[in-house]
Specification:
It is a single chain. The chain is an alpha+beta fold and 71 residues long. It is globular and about 30 Å long.
């Protein structure tokens, strides 16, 4: 990829046209520092890649509805 996750989110959130798009990150990483950086950039939620389908759908729906996410 040309951009890593932090670069991608930073570019998306710095765009006037795209900044309001909700972002849910699926990750295998448990890197607390990366999660902190991405949350500061405006990521709405994080999920492990092995998340159950029903849980993922619920979290997507909450992100789209603007509800508070898991911390």
């Amino acid at each position: 990829p040309e951009l890593d996750g932090i670069e991608f989110v930073s570019a998306l959130k710095s765009s006037d046209k795209l900044a309001r798009i909700p972002i849910l990150v699926l990750t295998v990483l448990g890197d607390v520092e990366t999660e902190r950086i991405l949350r500061n950039l405006g990521v709405d939620d994080f999920c492990p890649k092995n998340i159950q389908r029903r849980d993922l759908i619920n979290r997507i729906n909450r992100v789209l509805a603007g509800a508070p996410m898991h911390v």
